[in-house]
Specification:
binds P-hydroxybenzoic acid, Rossmann fold, 23% strand, 9-stranded mixed sheet
């Protein structure tokens, strides 16, 4: 392709994107909710909307990665949504709930943004949900702002995400929230020299900063800070580097899924535990879904996180049952992402009920901001100042419970806001 042809192609894409955004802003989505969405490719629908009966559905557009290296993220999030629908039904305030699922194949920021735009402009969704990966949540944030669509973050965990749009609310976690208590605990529990290893993007940088701040404030010393590439990291070379430096312990954040399994395998194969190097991590590395695959190498490892399937409460029992009923035994054990999605759905249902099925985005955000309920993870609420989650973080240890590996909660840090803001 010549330079001229390439430039003109790029310009066409840019114009199409702007046109889509303007259509979103101008089409009066919120005032025009009762109009059925045009079929894809059926034109812009410029004729005046006829008076139609009140809208009968609540449309929820889900954007997440369902294929590629982060396919587990989409599956976990969708599994949590399905569990909620199984338990509470697919009707709320007399309206049928419709979930429109879109795969980013990510991490793919631009695809996530385009899918969010299409869901808003063409499908006229009332809520955007999903967002397992930080780059995708950040890319979609302007779409929420421009179209005034409440955007419920069900996993993405970099601190700044909620600052990127007044229409964002988060029901998952932030990495500083779970990393700071672990830094504090490590300094108080005989670990003097540590190496850190984090995925080299937003949540990893947040984890590294919050852990290091708390650990050094407690008198600890970080002797090596490793950042691993987000795409195809070779953990064994990094883990060997840690072994050679002989710290007392290694702190890890990697995104849950393939990377947690691969990093734990490298730690095991390189014999760090035998060399006397302890492993401590955020719960992403030893997430409940991956634990069975990781196996006994995880026994005894200390992590901090906001959810464990071992959490003993009626709400968690009901969630686990609904998850199994909705997804089948073959889906395996749900993890924290499924819970973030399940809670996000609970919040949406509450908002829809309180608005009697008529979704006004600003009223919806006010309701989200004052939300508080008991989740399968324990008590949660939303900080009205930041629209971010406030919750208990747990210190956990991997043990065998009835023959299965579980992160058993041994200490609580209640009512934690995101210390990253
Ligand atoms: C993120 O991209 O924000 C993310 C992904 C996976 C995790 C945590 C955070 O386990």
């Amino acid at each position: 392709m010549s330079h001229r042809v390439l430039v003109s192609a790029l310009l066409r894409v840019a114009f199409a994107t702007v046109a889509l955004a303007l259509a979103g802003a101008a089409c009066g989505k919120k005032a025009d909710e009762s109009r059925p969405a045009p079929a894809p490719g059926s034109g812009s629908g410029s004729a005046a909307a006829p008076a139609t009966p009140e809208k009968t559905t609540i449309k929820i557009g889900m954007v997440a990665s369902f294929s590629g290296p982060f396919a587990d993220v989409g599956k976990q999030l969708h599994g949590g949504i399905k569990a909620y629908l199984k338990q509470y039904g697919d009707t709320v305030a007399g309206k049928k709930v419709e979930i429109l699922v879109r795969d980013t194949t990510g991490p793919a920021a631009e695809v996530a943004k385009r899918l969010a735009q299409e869901l808003v402009v063409q499908d006229k969704v009332d809520f955007l949900v999903g967002f397992g990966l930080t780059p995708e949540a950040l890319a979609a944030a302007p779409v929420a702002t421009e179209s005034k669509t409440p955007m419920v973050i069900m996993n993405a965990a970099t601190s700044i995400i909620t600052t990127k749009s007044p229409y964002i609310v988060r029901f998952s976690l932030t990495l500083p929230q779970v990393s700071a208590p672990l830094g504090d605990w490590a300094a108080k529990n005989g670990i003097k020299k540590i190496a850190t290893m984090v995925a080299d993007y937003g949540p990893g940088h947040d984890a590294e900063a919050a852990f290091t701040k708390a650990f050094t404030a407690g008198g600890g010393e970080v002797i090596d800070a490793i950042r691993t590439p987000l795409a195809n990291p070779d953990f064994s070379s990094f883990i060997q580097r840690v072994k050679d430096k002989k710290p007392d312990a290694l702190f890890v954040f990697v995104p849950a899924g393939q990377q947690s399994i691969a990093s734990m395998k490298a730690f095991d194969e390189r014999g760090l535990a035998k060399a006397g190097i302890k492993l401590i991590a955020t719960g992403d590395m030893l997430d409940d879904h991956g634990l069975a695959t990781i196996g006994d190498a995880a026994l005894g490892v200390i992590t901090t996180h906001h959810y464990s399937v071992a959490h003993d409460s009626p709400e968690n029992k009901a969630f686990l049952q609904a998850y199994r009923d909705a997804n089948g035994a073959e889906a395996g054990t749900p993890n924290f992402m499924s819970v973030g999605a399940y809670d996000g759905m609970a919040a949406i249902y509450d908002v829809v009920k309180k608005l009697d099925g008529k979704i006004d985005p600003d009223k919806a955000m006010e309701l989200f901001k004052h939300m508080a309920f008991t989740s399968p993870r324990g008590p949660i609420s939303i900080d009205p100042e930041t629209r971010d989650i406030v919750q208990t973080v747990y210190l956990r240890k991997v043990e065998k419970v009835n023959g299965e590996l579980r992160s058993v909660e041994i200490q609580q840090f209640p009512n934690l806001k995101d210390p990253g803001k």
